Amino acid sequence: MAEAPCSGQSSEALKKAENAALEMYRFAALMLGNEAEAVRLVENTVAAVEIDPCADPRAVKGLVRDQVLDGALAIMHSQDPASFGDLPAAEATGCLDDDGATPLSGEQLSELMTVSGRGPLREWLNRLTQAQRAVFVQRAVLGQTNADTAKAINRISRPAVWTAEAVSSLFRQSLCSLASALVHSVPATQS
Hints:
Number of strands: 0
């Protein structure tokens, strides 16, 4: 009796798929600001994706991630289409240079999402327009480039006016705003 093809990979693939779904839920919740909506989006996306059990788990994760991203952007765009139509004004000077910006590590994101850090981060995210939030989460959490972020937004935004430069400017503005919000949320210590 022959062994089923890729039978040894199925448990590993299932574990990776579960981890990817959890990661996509966290990402979708940050994008949408609504945990119930994030769960629905991830469940519907995973249910709709045809996955070959013998496929490379990294390719599957990328496919699911792209579809969750597109779904989140479509929801955000429907909630506030005007924010995606208004490109940020070019900054004369920025407070940060994002050339060396890297995605938040799982540890850093977990720290920001702990009981003590969750409030200030969520409050700050909730003050952003949908476009600002979409740019920040794609760049800081997913680690996408300015060009990839612009391309993703242009898939749902009409007219497709987003450029890598516009994303870069908005991301720098967001980083400055977050830094300021976090500094102001820390209680002053007495000497």
